Amino acid sequence: MALPRPPPNDHGRRDCDSKKKRKEAEIYQALNSEPIDVAALRRMAISEGGLLMDEIRCKVWPKLLNVNTEDLPPPPGKELREDNKDYQQVLLDVRRSLRRFPPGMPDEQREGLQEELIDSILQVLQRNPQLHYYQGYHDIVVTFLLVVGERLATVLVEKLSTHHLRDFMDPTMDNTKHILNYLMPIIDQVNPELHDFMQRAEVGTIFALSWLITWFGHVLSDFRHVVRLYDFFLACHPLMPIYFAAVIVLYRAEEVLACECDMASVHHLLSQIPQDLPYETLISRAGDLFVQFPPSELAREAAQQQAERTAASTFKDFELASAQQRPDTVLRQRFRERLRAEERAKALLTTKPRTNRFVKLAVMGLTVALGAAALAVVKSALEWAPKFELQIFP
Amino acid sequence: MATEVESSLELSLSTSGTEPGTLPPPRSRIFKIIVIGDSNVGKTCLTFRFCAGRFPTRTEATIGVDFRERAVAIDGERIKIQLWDTAGQERFRKSMVQHYYRNVHAVVFVYDMTNIASFHSLPLWIEECKQHLFTNDIPRILVGNKCDLRSAIQVPTDMAQKFADTHSMPLFETSAKNPDDNDHVEAIFMTLAHKLKSHKPLMLNQPPNHSTVQLEAEPKPTMTCWC
Question: I want to staple B110 with a disulfide (CB 3.0 to 4.6 A). Which of A78, A387, B37, B158 is the partner?
Answer without folding.
Answer: B37
